[in-house]
Amino acid sequence: MEKEENQNKSNINENQKQEKENIKIDENLNVKNKQETDQETPETTNQETLEPKEVSPEEKIIELEDKLARAFAEMENQRRRFEKEKEDAFDYGGFSFSKEALNLIDNLDRSKHVLQNDDELKETEALKKTLEHIDIIKKDLISIFEKNNIKPIECINKKLDPNFHQAMMEIEDDTKEPGTIIQEIQKGFTIKDRLLRPSLVGVSKKIEKTEKNQEKSKDK
To answer: Which domains, from first to last, does the chain contain?
Structure first.
């Protein structure tokens, strides 16, 4: 009998141990499942945030209107640029040719200067007639230039303007204000509102009084 009782007790103890082990296993499984669910929740939330929002028809219409307005503005800017380029080509297309043609006037002026300084031709009828013809040709050339909006720059007795004049020398002259143009070396021209070439000029400056001049004035 005692053996049976002891055996029953041992069986009861083993059953209790087994139940405790089963409880621990269940607890561990619950903890593991909870951890997995915690890890899955942020992924699902991230996926939800990454999904693009649906754009309403009104927003699509506003976006399309904005793109259309930008396209029309770009087309208008291009049209204006083309019009400006066309006008410039019409007005200034002969810029290079006009600049080269000015050499004709320069050569006439040089020829006239050489003839006037020739001692053998001075005070002869041939020289007078030649100079008259040179002047006529020069006037005709300038008249043709002016019909094509190429005009000479008037500079004598005017203040030096860097936009139209290029100073080549300074000339002492107390009768003029400093910076006044008193000599024209080469005539300048404009074509419409653009500079074709600047006038090469000489400008006045005050006479510098040296020590010798001061001594002479004192002696006087």
So the answer is: 151-211 (2.30.22.10)
